[in-house]
Amino acid sequence: FSSSVFSTVTITAPEEIIILAVNGQEVNTGLIPAKKHSYQVDAGNLTLNVRYREYFEHLTGEHDIVKSGVVTIQAQNLQDRQTYRLALVNAPKRFDAAKEYAEQPTVALYDQNQQLVVQQTGANNEAQPWFSGSSLLSRTLDLTQKNKNSTTLPFSNSTILPLNFSFQQHRELL
């Protein structure tokens, strides 16, 4: 009798950090950004491709969205059942400063004890070869290799959908 146990970690990100891909696998976050995103990934080594994006409303009633190129963060040895948090380092509050910050944003990953795991400065504007076509509608995304079926987490209002789960399949569940 053999039992396989999958090790997972949770990565959270504020609304200003958009996770584009996890270990080379594209993440489609939808049109309406959430205040906070939560992702389940395999424990161990991790590569995140993220973008800084912030909405600014001006006194005139107009608005601007500032966004960076892609920042690649590589973390080693993420521990099973731990939660890690992405954060901007020295994030600007003013629009003018944000435009400059977007040229070279600094994104950090902290463990649940608020200790810095890794920090990366700089963005790459090259196109990425991620596949598209998946529609993920939940706020907690399971990007581990083990999940092949839809799962509802106990004591949670989040649904975890596999990356090949379509919008039509999701509607049929509702």
Question: What is the topology?
Answer:
Layout: E1 8-14, E2 17-22, E3 25-26, E4 36-42, E5 44-57, E6 63-78, E7 83-88, H1 95-101, E8 106-110, E9 116-121, E10 140-142, E11 151-152, E12 159-160, H2 167-173
Parallel strand pairs: 1-7, 4-10
Antiparallel strand pairs: 1-4, 2-3, 2-5, 5-6, 7-8, 8-9, 11-12
Short description:
This protein is mainly beta. It has helices spanning 95-101, 167-173, and strands at 8-14, 17-22, 25-26, 36-42, 44-57, 63-78, 83-88, 106-110, 116-121, 140-142, 151-152, 159-160.
Molecular structure report:
- By secondary structure, this protein is mainly β.
- The chain has two helices and twelve strands; from the N terminus they run E-E-E-E-E-E-E-H-E-E-E-E-E-H.
- It has helices at residues 95-101, 167-173, and strands at 8-14, 17-22, 25-26, 36-42, 44-57, 63-78, 83-88, 106-110, 116-121, 140-142, 151-152, 159-160.
- A hairpin with a 6-residue loop joins strand 11 (151-152) and strand 12.
- The termini are far apart.
- Mean pLDDT is 75; it is low at 127-141 and 146-174.
